[in-house]
Amino acid sequence: MNRSIGLRAKTYFLAVASCGVAAASFLGCGSGGGAAGDKDVVAMVQSSKAKASDLSMADVAALVGSAVSQAGGLEFIEDGQTVVLKPSLITLYQDAGMTDASVTVSGIATDWRVVKAVADLVRAKNPSGKILVMEGSRLLTSMVYIVLGYTSDNFGSSVDEFVALEGSSCSDSSTADLEERAAPSGKKYWVNKRYVGADVVISISTLETDAAAGIGGAVENLGIGATPAGQYGSGDNSVDCTRVKIDQSSPENIGEFIRDYYRLRPADFVVMDGLQGLEHGPLPVWDDSGTYDYESSIKNMRLILAGRNAVAVDTIEALVMKCDPKKVPFLSKLEADGLGTTDAAKITVLDKQPSEVAQPFAGKQTAICPGT
Amino acid sequence: MKRSYVLLCVLVPATVAAFVFPGCDSGGGGTTTRTTTPSTGGTTSSGGMTSTGGTTSSGGTTSSGGTISTGGTTSSGGTTSSGGTISTGGTTSSGGTTSNGGTTSSGGRTGTGGRTSGSGGAAGGAGGSETGGTQATGGSSQPGGTTGTGGRGMGGAGTGGRTTGTGGAATGGTTSTGGTTTPTTAFAKNSIAYTGCSMANNIGNGNKRAGNGVMWNSDSYGTGAMVVQNWTSSSSSSWSLFDQKMNSIGGKNTVKGVMVQICIFSSRATDDEVRQMITAAKAHTNPGTHIYLVGQPQYEAGHECSLAGTGGAKWTDDEAKKIAGEGIADVSYLGKFMLDSTKGEVMSDTCHATSSGEDAMAKQANAFFPAN
Question: Could you tell me the domains of chain B?
Fold first, then answer.
C-alpha cells in the first residue's frame, strides 16, 4: 500500500505551466510534473466549446487527460494496486424527486464520462490491479449508479466493480464490511474497509456550493459522501441514505465532521467535474433559504480541475465560484492541520486562472458564497 | 363516506376505460367463435358485451358463468369469478369494484356476502348470515346496500346493492347476487387523499388541471421520491407532509378515503412494508377511512420504468391486488392508472408522466372517484 503519496504534492519538481491553451492538445503534456517549487499545483482546463452539453466523450476524455497530466499525472499509481474512484452522486433527481437528473453534465452528480476518463488513465498505469468506483448516495446507490450511467456497459473493463458504500440497503447496520477508526481528534468513526484500505483514493467531485458546508468539492465528497449510511443515516429506511446523524446545523459543525472523516483517508488525487457548475447546491430544491429551481442554478463552466492536494483544489474551486475559501470551516481546519492551504498565493494554478473563469455562485451560506 | 359503484367501461370514454380495465374491450376469442354481443357458451367464451358460460368466460362488458369468469365490467358466476367492475357469484369471487357472493368474496371496492369467508371489499356490505352467505365475514364497514336485495346466489345469499339493487338472474348461482351498479356521484371535494411518490405527484399535478376536485391536488404537497419505505413509519417526514396537506383542506373529517400508491425503486418493497404503509395511513385518518391500494402507473405493453426496474411497475400492481386481497379491513384494490408512452404521456426518464400524461391520469382518477 502506498498511502503517503496523497499528501506529498510539495515534493514535485516539474512545472508544466508551458503547456498549451487548447484543451484538446493537452494530452501528454507536462507528464511527471505537478508542483511548482513548494507550491501545490492545481490544473484547470476549459473547453472551447460553447456549452457543456455540447461535449462529447472524446472531449471529456481530452479535458480530463490534460488536467491530470498538468497536475502531475498518475505516475504514482503502480500496477496491482487497488484504486478507488469516488464520484459525487448525491441524488439521481434534479428536483424534489419529480425529474431525473441528466445523465451527463447535470452539475448535481459527477458526469460518468469524467470518471470513465479517469478510470482509463488509471487502468493504463494499473492493468492488473483493481479499480473500484465507490459511492454512498442519499438514495440507494446501486440504483443511482444505473440511472446516472455508472454501468458496465459504459465502463467496460476500466472498472472492476461499482460499490455501494451503504451495503445492501440504507438501513444496513452491519459492521462486517466496516471498521472503526479514530480520527486525530480522538473521535471514532465507521468507515468502509475497502475504501480506507485502498492503495489510492481519487476524489472526483462536482463544482458547487453546499447548503450546509458552504462549498462542495473534493474534501466534502469524501468527508460526507464516504460515510456508511447504516451508521450515519436514520437506520429505519432502506432506500433513504440521508446522513441525519451528522450534525449539519452549521458550516462549523459539519466542518468539524468533514475534517475528521476526511483525515481518516485523505485523497491521493483529485479530479473535479466542473463541466456544469451548480449554485444553491447540492440541490437547489434543498436550499431552504429561498425557492430555487435547477434550470436557473446551473452554470455553464466547461471546466475540469485536477490536483494532488484536495484542499488546494477546493480553494481554487471556491475562487472560481467567488466564494471565500478561508471562510469554509473544513478547509481552514484542514489547513490548520497541515493538510493544505487556502492561500491562493501558495497555489500554482496552471492553464486557466480563476480570474478568467470565475462567476458568482450563490449558496445558502452567504458569508462564504455571497453570490456576487 | 359515500360510495359508488362505477361501471367504468360504460361511464368513461372507451379509450380511458380500455386502459383501466383491459377487459373492457372485447376479449379474445374462444375455441368456437369470437363474438361481440353476446357471447355464450363454448369452452372459452370471451369478449363481447355479454359473455356467458363456457369453461372460461372473460372480458366483455358482462362476463358470467363458466368455470372461470374474469374481466369485464360485470363478471359473475362460475367457479372463479374475478376482475371486472362487478365480480359476483362463483366459488371465488374477487377483484373488481364490486365483488360479492361466492364462497369467497374478496377485493373489490364493495364486497358482499360469500358463503364462508367473503372478505368483502372496501366499504361494502359485510357478508355473514345477515347479508351474505352462511358464514361469510368481511366487508369493511357496512352491510348490504341501501335498498338492494340480493337473490340467493350460487355462493350463498347475495346481498343487495348499495342504492337500487334488485338482484337479477344470476348465471353462476341459483338466483341473483345482488344489486345493481347504479352510478352515483359519491365523493365530495378533497375527500380522497393520496400518498405515493412522484408518480402520485403526477396525478396530483393533473388533478389541478383536469381533476374533478375529489382527489387532492399537489399544491404544497410534493411527494417526489417518496417510495413505500418513506411511508412505512407513521412518524416519517412524509406523513408530516400529509398531515399538513390534510389540515390545509379541512382536516381528517374531510378525508373519506386515501389512495395509497405502492411506489418503488428497483429494490422494491416487502409485503410487510406495504402493510405498514396501510397501517400508517389508518393512523393518520379517521377510523373507517377507506384505503384504496394502487400500484404505480402501468404502461403500454413492453414499456418499462427504469426507476422501478424491469417488471417493477407491474409488480406494484400485482402487489396492490395481493395485499388488498388479504382482507384487511377498509382496504381494497383500486385499479390501474395507465400511461402510454407512444402518445407522449411519459417523460424520457421512462417513468414519470408528462403534462398530458398527468392530465390523462387525472381523468382516470375522476372515473374512479366521481364528484358529487
Answer: 8-28+36-157 (no CATH), 192-368 (3.40.50.1110)
